[in-house]
Every structure is written in C-alpha cells, then in structure tokens.
Amino acid sequence: MRVTVVGAGIVGLATAYTLVGAGATVRCLDVGAPMGARSAGDTRIFRVAHGDPDLVAAARRASELWDDWSMTAGRTFVGGDRVIVSGPRVPAWSEAMTAAGAIHRVVDGVLHDPAGGVLDLAAAGAFLVAAVGPEQVRVAGVDADATVHTAGGPIDADADAVVVAAGAGTPALVAPLGIDVPAGLEHHTRFTFAGPADRPCHLDGWGDGREDGPLTSTYQHRTRTGHWAVGGHLPDADTAWELGADEVARRSRAAVVDHVRRHLPQLDPTPVEELRCTPMRGAGDGVHTARAGAVHAVWGDNLAKLAPRIGEQLTAAVLGLTSS
C-alpha cells in the first residue's frame, strides 16, 4: 500500500513511522522543516493522568510504545521524573485513572502519576525524521481519491490513502472534503528558567479559589539539567489570535514571571528562553479523527505525548484493520 502523510510534526512522523513498520510505502510531506510549528521545542510533559478513562488508556498504551521506540533508538525518550497534579481537576482525574486501572495516588489533594515524566521531544523527532525521511513540500489540497495537489500540480496520484496531520493547516486541507475541523487558534507561550534539576514534573491548577493574577492554571517541568519550562493559561481574551503573538507573549511573560516570583522561589525569575505555539482554542486534551474517502484526518491539542498511539490507530484505520 502507498500512503502520503501530510505533516511532519510528531504525530505525522509517528504515523509515517508506524505505517512503514506495517509494510506500507510512505511519503511524508511538510511545508516547513520537520518538528516545527506545534512540535517545536525540546520537551513536553508525558502523563498518564487525564480526565477521561479512554485518554488514560491511550496514554498507557503510548507509554508502552515510547518504551519500544526507546529500545529501537537506544536512548530513553520518556524520563522517570513522575508527574504531580494539583488543583480542582484532581478528583475527576483520579476517578478516570481508577476507572482505567492506572496506578496513581492522591496525597493531601495532590495526584501522583508515577508513569509520567519529561518527554524528550527533540530526540524523538530526530529518531523519527531519520527513519521516515520527510520532504519539504507545500501541499495545496487533497482529493478523496488520495491525490495530493501542490502549486506545481498533482503528485502521488497513485497513492492508496492520505493521512492529514498538518496541525493548523489541517482545517483548510480537509474542509473541501466535508470534514469539519475547528479552525480557531490562539497564541500560547511558555518560558524557560534556571533552577534545580531534581524535582518532579508538576501540573499546578490555580482555579480552586487561590488568587494568582490572571493565570487560570500553570504547569512546569524540567527541560534539561538546571532548567525548567513554565507556562500558564490566560483567559481567552488574553490569548486571542487577533492580539498577535508578540502581544500574547508579552502578557504571558508578565503573568508567568510574577507566578515564578511568588510561587517558585527555587527558580531564577528571569526567563532564559521562550517557546511560542498556536493551540486550537478551547480544545484541551483529546484526539479527533475523521475520514472522507481515502483521506484520514487527525487533529487536537496536547497530542505529543500520545503520538505513538495515534500513529498506531491511524495505521490500523488506513490498512483497513479498524475504522478511523
């Protein structure tokens, strides 16, 4: 079977890699460099903890697949840092983990996820890029019969299937096929601070009555020895697409630095790096797929941690082993 994967972020690469492993002939295309846009940056938080039992189960399977990939690559992609979660989400997330049979504990209102850790996204991306060999091609459209169009004309006319995992570019590519993907985007910025090297990942909820300026929730995780990424979620009005990336970054920086000064005294409050991305507005955790003819589309937010499982599911759908 011949398959074209549109998108060389972590999800597109994971899907292409899994398809190749299943015996398919795969061509992976992206308008930019691999692992750009939403997959940019060195690290992400991997967690089994979610508020939906199905997502907990998906993350548990993803953990197994990350381990398999680590064995193949000869390096560890998910560290054993563990994740702790606080705030108003804890009861619902604990209930979902219990329903899915995931090991965890709640102590003094804090959920401990022992399977969580820091995902080395840069290393995982390099591993997948080397295995897949993506090409830099601007895709202008796809047809339900799996024909892919570029500015120079149609390519891959003999492909049997197309997977569209193009992040922010997915809505426009699949809308003509009748697949409705939310197109609303917002800006988000996280910052890196110097700090200790021996603390667990922490998703910290500030929506339970504690005042913390404009931030509704925060997260922090180690990125490399002596450095921590810290991000905070602002109200919708402060992340609107119309404000522009620079203005949202300015507002985020002020709020996150203030948060670090007051709640994370172990960190130097002067950011040493910043990473910008464009999540879908209000999407939260979750994976969405749809199919039109021979075209399979995938979208969502916070997908990096689930990438191996998403690739596995899309491969099964493309090969006709299940429905997408």
Key words describing this protein structure:
FAD/NAD(P)-binding domain; six-stranded mixed sheet; alpha/beta; eight-stranded mixed sheet; 19 strands
CATH architecture grouping of the largest domain: 3-Layer(bba) Sandwich
Counted beta strands = 19
The description of the largest β-sheet is:
8 strands, mixed
Question: Which class of the largest domain in CATH terms?
Answer: Alpha Beta
User: Alpha-carbon distance between the termini?
Assistant: 17 Å
Instruction: Indicate the low-confidence ranges by residue numbers.
Output: 206-211
Tell me the overall shape.
globular
Mean pLDDT: 91
Helices and strands, in order, run as EHEEHEHEEEHEEEEEHEEEEHEEEH
Total separate domains: 2
Q: CATH H level of the largest domain: which superfamily? A: FAD/NAD(P)-binding domain
CATH topology of the largest domain: the name is FAD/NAD(P)-binding domain
Q: What is the beta-strand fraction?
A: 25-35%
